[in-house]
Amino acid sequence: MLRRALWLGWGRGLLGLGLGTRRGVSTLEWDGKVSEIKKKIQSVIPGGAWNPLYDTSHLPPEHSDVVIVGGGVLGLSVAYWLKRLEKQRGAIKVLVVERDHTYSQASTVLSVGGIRQQFSLPENIQLSLFSVEFLRNINEYLAVVDDPPLDLQFNPSGYLFLASEKGAATMENNVKVQRQEGAKVCLMSPEQLRNKFPWINTEGVALASYGLENEGWFDPWSLLQGLRRKVQSMGVLFCQGEVTRFVSSSDRMETPSGEEVILKKIHEVHVKVDHSQEYQPVECAIVVNTAGAWSGQIAELAGIGKGPPGTLQGTKLPVEPRKRYVYLWHCPQGPGLEAPLLADPSGAYFRRDGLGNNYLGGCSPTAEEEPDPGNLEVDHDFFQDKVWPLLAQRVPAFETLKVKSAWAGYYDYNTFDQNGVVGPHPLVVNMYFATGFSGHGLQQAPAVGRAVAEMVLEGHFQTIDLSPFLFSRFYLGEKAQEHCII
Amino acid sequence: MLKIIFPSIMLMPLTWLSKNNMIWINPTVYSLLISLISLSTLNQYSDISTNFSLLFFSDALSAPLLVLTTWLLPLMLIASQSHLSKEPLTRKKVYITMLILLQVLLIMTFTASELIMFYVLFEATLVPTLIIITRWGSQAERLNAGSYFLFYTLSGSLPLLVALVYIQNTTGSLNFLIMQYWNQPLMDSWSNALLWLACMMAFMVKMPLYGLHLWLPKAHVEAPIAGSMVLAAVLLKLGGYGMLRLTTMLNPLTEYMAYPFLMLSLWGMIMTSSICLRQTDLKALIAYSSVSHMALVIVAILIQTPWSYMGATTLMVAHGLTSSMLFCLANTNYERTHSRTMILARGLQTLLPLMAMWWLLASLANLALPPTINLLGELFVVMSAFSWSNITIILMGANMMITALYSLYMLIMTQRGKHTHHINNIKPTYTRENTLMALHMLPLLMLSLNPKIIMGLTY
């Protein structure tokens, strides 16, 4: 400021117009140099960020209390609740390691984005109920100062599950459980179906359950960005990298029955930077595995599953990526604005997308038709051969439609019982899981994040008891089977 | 004094020439023997200092601190064994050499009879400490911590050099033994005020005084365990020792020059104690508690009564042992959970009951439980401050209460409650760690039986 005052005073007074340009140029140069010198001085004196060795700003820090592997909606949700439930601000240092910051293959953003309470397990229903309350009040939970409010584009249009004669009894039982937990679901006969949704062909439908409230779909990308923004404002560190190694220390211990077990504790995570051999060992106290479709690989890195099969040591994390296709089509004579997300007993489903007569949907393939999860290429013949006939049979208006685009995404598929794995591993004592939700992870993410944060901070589940979802069920063989899977 | 200094210097070749499996045992055992020798200096006839030579002497003030310094070296070596176990052999030897060098310089500092020699050694102790913090600290922030530590202390002590040279020029000698008989009152003038400030600021930064304490949490938190131990136990006391020596020749100016520092200390001890209540990092909590205790010492030294001098010396020794023990306990936690956050390592009492006992004893000592010497020191300081001004009792009483609050908070947070799942398989306590805690606690408890040996010059 002094410089500017000097320049103005001298320029006008002493040198006049003739030397004005030259003066202007030389002043700018001097200006630049002075600010450079100032910056240099500021970086050297204590308090600056000068590192005399070499620049490591692209690497994660050398120490972090919690390392969350995977920065999708579940990882960010765990980070959010860890920061929210810590008793004092800044108590825990959290680091989220995400391999791909464009989220090009992440299940979160490729998801259809539906949320429903129509599950058969009470825990699933409670998880979804809390999550929908979170989503409805998203701007109270994820408010960041000076940032615009989030618009999740939540369409509360509900889910409509159709059941044939075979599945009608199960559906009735499920609806009873759902009502007990507090979900607002109603059962409809084919007659009522035809009255409410005249575009459905009710042939073969014995019973339908329709979610009246708190069900629908939303934009997962907005949720992800909102979480990311909020979590960064709460002080969570992000780094781009891939976890390549866990360094752990193990201990032989004896159980009360005299059996010997080896307990492991991960104390260092090696994070490798993209396109480089550089890696940073991050010293950590807790690792949270929310790597989604790749959780199985991360678990193997930690040594889970290395042992004789049939023992707890040899029980692998049964989560693997399964590719699912989603197709977007345009149908002017389609069901219109009041269409819920319809789930056919044959496995096909669709929902309205936007207000321009676009619909998106797909179908879960049978075991023989499972596509190869190596890449995310779309098989358009699958739509022609399998999905379209089912859709056209259920909704006659869909006989004429035009497919506009399609994409594929991964389910982090739990081959054991298609429900999530939550909580610590019994042997690798400081690895916590929040993965394996097989297609309904996005809708349960807020509640699962809170459960994992409670487990980490308190040692037990406090609000929703997710003990049926612990890892030990894989060894004990107790399936927490979910029947309403799309 | 050479009988202590030479063996300490010879510890260095001992380390370098030891066999690989004796590299920890040799220095530890020999330094324990050296500390036994230094105990003989504690046998003080009052008012007469024991003059070993023209250069070294020990009196009732420097002897307790000397014994503390020599006692601490074997403890530092015992504490460092675990985190250095993975380093290559030469690096281990360099680390031990740094510790021994620091020890030698500290011994000479505490026994120096001439002030310029004291100053040179005072500055020299910065170098091994800086090396230990910046090379062997565990996180990237240690470089920042090292620069804070170095520059704060350096810039505080350069005026001291100028002042000492000036005094040497005007009075002809800076030897303690001569100065105490020759003492002239310092007249009231601007230049004398500056002289007073120049003399005192170095030690204020070192203590640290509340406004100049920024380097301490950083340095303590980022330093490895031996660095934290020596910083908390001995290096802070260098400041106290220097102040105690220099205030004898800075009268009567101290009477009113000391007011700002007294206010800062009185306020600062409550502030830093309150900060401790909100800390989540265990080492930061102990670091701030050091600032709080040292603020009491500053108040005591600046009041300049016989009782307060006794309190200051007692508190210095007591705090040295207690703080060092707390840092060792925090380090055992850190080695197991790899995190310094308190909430991630809770409920340890059920898993490690003996360590819980050490935690309990250390926390009780920290909150000045009778009959420990911590209480004696604090009591003397509180009483003399009350006679200086009645209002200080409110502040000091509040400080004692908050100290009790955060010590118990630290104890309950780490020991009680339900333990979290991920500390299921922490390693049980090593005998080495139990020895370390016992070697801290035993002197502390035994001194409460005979505290007069640490009560300093005015007993």
UniProtKB/TrEMBL annotation, chain A:
Domain FAD dependent oxidoreductase: start-end pairs: 65-455
Keywords associated with the record: Electron transport, FAD, Flavoprotein, Membrane, Mitochondrion, Mitochondrion inner membrane, Oxidoreductase, Respiratory chain, Signal, Transmembrane, Transmembrane helix, Transport
One of the GO biological process terms: mitochondrial respiratory chain complex I assembly
Superkingdom of source: Eukaryota
Name under which the protein is recorded: FAD-dependent oxidoreductase domain-containing protein 1
Keyword Transmembrane found: yes
Primary residence: mitochondrion
Entries under Pfam families matching the protein: DAO (PF01266)
GO cellular component: mitochondrial inner membrane
Single GO molecular function: oxidoreductase activity
Signal peptide span: 1-20
Automatic annotation (TrEMBL), chain B:
Single biological process term from Gene Ontology: ATP synthesis coupled electron transport
Family the entry assigns: Belongs to the complex I subunit 4 family.
Domain of life (superkingdom): Eukaryota
Keywords of the record: Electron transport, Membrane, Mitochondrion, NAD, Respiratory chain, Translocase, Transmembrane, Transmembrane helix, Transport, Ubiquinone
Known EC number: 7.1.1.2
Membrane disposition: Multi-pass membrane protein
Enzyme class: translocase
TM annotation in the entry: 21-42, 54-73, 94-110, 116-136, 148-167, 193-216, 223-244, 256-277, 284-303, 309-330, 351-369, 389-412
Domain NADH:quinone oxidoreductase/Mrp antiporter transmembrane: residue ranges: 112-398
Location relative to the cell: Mitochondrion membrane
InterPro entries: NADH4_N, NADH_Q_OxRdtase_chainM/4, NADH_UbQ_OxRdtase, ND/Mrp_TM
Quaternary structure (record): Core subunit of respiratory chain NADH dehydrogenase (Complex I) which is composed of 45 different subunits.
GO CC field: mitochondrial membrane
Annotated GO MF terms: NADH dehydrogenase (ubiquinone) activity; NADH dehydrogenase activity; ubiquinone binding
Name of this protein: NADH-ubiquinone oxidoreductase chain 4
Source species: Camelus ferus
Catalytic activity: a ubiquinone + NADH + 5 H(+)(in) = a ubiquinol + NAD(+) + 4 H(+)(out)
Pfam name, any one: Proton_antipo_M
General function of this protein: Core subunit of the mitochondrial membrane respiratory chain NADH dehydrogenase (Complex I) which catalyzes electron transfer from NADH through the respiratory chain, using ubiquinone as an electron acceptor. Essential for the catalytic activity and assembly of complex I.
Domain NADH:ubiquinone oxidoreductase chain 4 N-terminal residues, every copy: 1-109
